[in-house]
Write a structure and sequence with these properties.
- Strands 2, 4, 5, 6, 9, 10 and 11 form a 7-stranded mixed sheet that branches.
- Strand 5 and strand 6 (about 55-60) form a beta hairpin.
- Helix content is about 0%, strand content about 55%.
- It is an all-beta fold.
- About 30% of the residues are buried.
């Protein structure tokens, strides 16, 4: 089982990034997928999730209207489009898969929002 995030980097405030999480080793289309982040010195927090068929999504209040989660079950990939980024969005972003008691995490990708 592997979840591999990519797309992180350094971006100025107001900028955009698109994160990807490529999955392998399990039946991706069965799993709810979510993104989480951990800022320096803080606990990891929920960012967004999407149901297995992509029909429903949910977001943390802090990112509503700025971030969009999506998935492509044919490519075994989940995405996080992040717009209007703020310095407080800085952190390590990790994807998580969950279904029937099975939970997997990726190692994360660093996002830094700074001028």
């Amino acid at each position: 089982v592997q979840l591999v995030e990519s797309g992180g980097g350094l971006v100025p405030p107001g900028g955009s990034l698109r994160l990807s999480c490529a999955a392998s080793g399990f039946t991706f289309r069965n799993y709810v997928m979510s993104w989480h982040r951990q800022a320096p010195g803080k606990e990891r927090e929920f960012v967004a999730y999407i149901t297995s068929d992509g029909s429903s999504t949910n977001y943390a209040d802090s990112v509503k209207g700025r971030f969009t989660i999506s998935r492509d079950n044919a490519k075994n990939t989940v995405y996080l489009q992040m717009n209007t980024l703020k310095p407080e969005d800085t952190g390590v972003y990790s994807c998580r898969s969950a279904w029937s008691g099975n939970v997997y995490w990726g190692q994360g990708t660093q996002v830094t929002v700074s001028s």
